[in-house]
Structure prediction request, 437 residues.
Amino acid sequence: MSLPVSMGRLTAESAVSRAFLVKTRGRIMALIVKKFGGSSVATTEKILNVAKRVLGEKKPGDKIVMVVSAMGDTTDDLIALAEGITKNPYQYTREMDMLLTTGEQQSIALLAMAFKTLGHPAVSLTGPMAGMKTNSVHTKGRIVDITPDRVHEELDKGNIVVVAGFQGADAFGNPVTLGRGGSDTSAVALAGALKADTCEIYTDVDGVYSADPRIVKGARKMKEITYHEMLEMARLGAGVMQPRSVEMGEYFHIPIHVRSTFTTTPGTIIREDYTMEDKDFVIRGVAHDEKVAKIAVLGIPNTPGIAHEIFSALADANIDVDMIVQSIRNIEKNVTDMVFTVAASDLAEAKKVVDGVADKLNAVAVLIEEDVAKVSIVGAGMLGNPGTASRMFGALSKVGINIDIISTSEISISCLVKGSQLKEAVNAIHDEFFPNK
Ligand code: ADP
Ligand code: ASP
Ligand code: MG
Prediction:
């Protein structure tokens, strides 16, 4: 695969080896990165429980790096706070990053205190202190390099090192966040840079399921899933892992263990290939994304360069476009409609950009639809199974759900449906491919 980022001086060394087993006096020590998500550290009681569990499971000599998210809904609360100042705070992306990074700063301080209170030395480090270097794309930053010297120093002093997820700093020292769910990426990237033995992602579910277990009651837990399929699930909305974190895992050859904060049952291993499970499934899972919005630019000239004009303007504003349909509106007048989806969080910015281009192109209208959602099936097995798409569409038609837009990749098929019908759509498709035994 192409490298997810320019990892600067880490590249060659880290990509080939992740073993960091150090023998001292005949004992093997391990370096373990453990990431705890927001719901796992939502209260001070939960933070203390996390510290107790980690100390209870720690073998003598193990080096532990913790990566933590902000407590509970703190990030959402901070966004709401900014909305008290302005309707669209994301127009001030640098200030948003200044604000959002405070969430993780609270949880690292509290968790480090929890370890100390329980008798183990610990130190908290912000993302920049841990050497997380990013580009300057505020609120959607990407890690460009990691120089974790300070982390090594603190580990060598015997500390448990508690690192703030979701954040780094650009070349000018500005705080930059890595997009929602970005602590996963901080953890996996740090594990790669430290050449950790294991990266464990602790969360409020006990693994990766064939669909979001909150939506589909009969969803099945996977023992393993490949990076490739997990990346597609995540990209299509399975919020249990941020897509970039899966790319990082593949890049560094780090197996990622997704497991529960609240139980000790083994979770799901994200890795190169299957080792245990039957590979003979057609689809691996159903993903959904309700945080999408549809934009339709109606009545634009059907001439070369128009698509480029619209989508390059969006790209310049760092807005990802997802499903795209161009249809003939009026052959005689040679005008067309361009319909596409963007992340709901980008809608306000995208509308501004598209309105500007639409004016220039003399478009008839720009329409926005927010009650839309995307449901997708994912699986490397569907490549050789031509009937898979029709089974998906059939499952939706059986429950009377209309498909608005369809898009496909090598290992996925996605349908845009009404947002209000999403839950029913996900369940209908899941039942089709994973019938109750
Ligand atoms: P954290 O705060 O620990 O990062 P997240 O809320 O980001 O937790 O991710 C965990 C959530 O991901 C689960 O509560 C679950 O609702 C959701 N999820 C979506 N798709 C899946 C899936 N296929 N398997 C497991 N969980 C999923
Ligand atoms: N706190 C950030 C968020 O809510 C990052 C994370 O939890 O991974 O998106
Ligand atoms: Mg998360």
Remarks:
- The chain has two domains: 5-205+240-275, 278-437.
- The longest strand covers residues 292-301.
- The chain has a mean pLDDT of 92.
- The domain at 278-437 is CATH 3.30.2130.10 (VC0802-like).
